[in-house]
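Friendly challenge for the regulars: who can give me the structure tokens for this chain first? No prize, just bragging rights.
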Amino acid sequence: MSDDDHAQAPRRRMHILQLLPNLISILALCSGLTAIRMAVEGQFGLSVGLIGLAAALDGIDGRLARMLKSESAIGAELDSLCDLVNFGVTPALVLYYWGMRADTSLGWIAVLIYAVCCMLRLARFNVGQRVSDAEEKPNGFVGVPSPAGAMLALGPIYLTYAFGPELKPPAFAIAIWMVFVGALMISRMPTPSFKGVRIYAENARFILVGSVALMASLLTYPWVTLMLLDIVYLIAIIVLWRRSAKSLRSVV
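First reply, four minutes later:
Bragging rights claimed.
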């Protein structure tokens, strides 16, 4: 195609609101990168808050793109790249600066393993999104999603901030926990997803009240609430795993 043909190609117009999903992804990336800076400066509580903000923004951008009908291949790739930084690199470095610099070699190995597991989890998710409509997609997630993995990995920080520095785990325990969470991300275990959850309309008021209570708990007792959410999430994974194992045994 000649330069003249390129010059005569019609220019596509788009509403400026359709840029919002990509802007939110970029804001999430800025939040994750700033969390690393705060960790370097020793402000680990703020680092955790910024990672949580990145996770909240990550839950918004895709839904907003579908609402505005502005989904694109570039937006999907941008979201995946931001997730790798926000939930693969950032929490690993925050944990390294917080509790593993005393054992730099072991801590850095855990950082690398966790980040690579997050990368593999995202790559598998992206491939799964390209499954044709003729193939059946699972109702939940397979393996822990990267935002949930990041919030799980930060569990040792929740424990220490909730109950005092005397309960701070040693560096080797933090490293083992990070590797364990990384293994959950690349595992084939079924994990909960709210995308397919349906409720009766008369029960909506209970969900709303529960959401308000959760937000109030996060604002009043953030570290205890985050730790309890991690525990509930792990219990949900175990329940789903046992249920799927029983169904497989019944088929056999």
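The chain has one domain: 15-129+139-197+210-251. The first strand starts at residue 141 and ends at 142. Your move, everyone else.
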